[in-house]
Design goal:
The chain is α+β, with helices and mostly antiparallel strands and about 300 residues long. It has helices at about 80-90, 105-110, 120-150, 235-245, 250-255, 265-270, 280-310; strands spanning about 1-5, 25, 35, 40-50, 55-65, 70-75, 165-170, 185, 195, 205-210, 215-220, 220-225, 230-235. The longest helix is centred in the middle third of the chain and has 33 residues, at about 120-150.
């Protein structure tokens, strides 16, 4: 039987996050943040009650938002339950028109779809799938170190503004996402989705226009949600991308909206360019990050295939 509880933290906006802190905090996004205190300790699955239905595993000290659930079970090993939910997540039945929602009963229904095999068989399946996760965690650690290195580069800020040749936006609604789509689909969430529509091609800088605000580099065919900006640089592609990321905090502070923050074209035009003295170094570092992302994606696909073969 599944045991499900809600979190105790009401306002993420009042919290302080830092990679220096050692405790995990989970909200409705698909990644955790680091904080300096915790409310719970143990092995759990963390799922949201609304938004993008991500599934996260934690074993240790953590806290989580009141609109997320922590799940454990006396019928499944927690890690096996995690893999089972990853397998059945596409069968979730959400309600809500603007924001997808799933209450405790819906998550219990999903858990009831998982075959309750013997504990020793569950452990054997975990032993097959888990090494893939460990490799991905190592890649993530390398990626974070590269990002820290980039952020510590001493590159001077210049007075140059209006650094983009073109600023376009996507045209699609969120429901254009397709599970097995051919092309990347960029929305205002951190996770890159798929779609069968394609409106953009070539090398672009991509900026989510509302919410927490994310950036991507992509070279290929793709499409975008209507609140996502597609940016072409005037020159110095990697320095321009670096400049945008350095100014993200200022963009967030200047963003409009009482409930959901959003940025306007004028905000993008006001971004200062940084010196192009490190263009070559930035090119190598950002391309290294892209290669790591490629390996991560393929390892995730392998993990998904193993889950499909072993959990069903």
């Amino acid at each position: 039987m599944a045991i499900i509880h809600t979190g105790d933290i009401k306002a993420t906006s009042l919290m302080k996050f830092s990679n220096k802190y050692k405790y995990k905090y989970f909200d409705r996004s698909n990644t955790f943040k680091n904080i300096n205190s915790f409310s719970y300790n143990g092995e759990y699955i963390i799922v949201p009650s609304e938004g993008n239905f991500s599934i996260q595993y934690v074993n240790g000290k953590f806290s989580h938002h009141q609109k997320t659930y922590r799940i454990t079970s006396n019928e499944f090993l927690t890690k096996y339950l995690y893999y089972g939910l990853l397998f059945y997540i596409n069968k979730i039945i959400s309600n809500g028109t603007t924001v997808q929602r799933a209450n405790i009963n819906e998550w219990k229904r999903l858990i009831n779809l998982i075959n309750p095999i013997k504990i020793n068989i569950q452990q054997k399946i975990i032993d097959i799938i888990e090494p893939i996760e460990k490799i991905n965690n190592k890649l993530l650690n390398i990626k974070n170190k590269i990002i820290i290195f980039i952020n510590k580069l001493e590159i001077k800020k210049t007075d140059e503004k209006n650094i983009f040749k073109t600023i376009n936006t996507g045209k699609l609604n969120a429901d254009a996402a397709v599970g097995n789509g051919k092309f990347n689909f960029y929305t205002c969430g951190e996770r890159i989705l798929k779609t069968n529509s394609s409106s953009f091609s070539g090398r672009n800088i991509i900026l989510s226009g509302n919410g927490k605000i994310f950036t991507w580099i992509y070279n290929g065919i793709f499409d975008a949600y209507q609140r996502v900006y597609i940016l072409k640089e005037k020159k110095d592609f990697y320095t321009t991308f670096y400049s945008l990321n350095k100014e993200l905090d200022n963009l967030r502070q200047r963003s409009n909206g009482a409930v959901i923050k959003f940025i306007k074209k004028e905000d993008i035009l006001s971004i200062n360019k940084y010196s192009n003295s490190h263009e070559f170094i930035l090119k190598n570092l950002y391309n290294l990050l892209l290669r790591i992302n490629f390996f991560e994606e393929n390892l995730k696909k392998l993990q998904q295939q193993l889950i499909f073969l072993l959990i069903k």
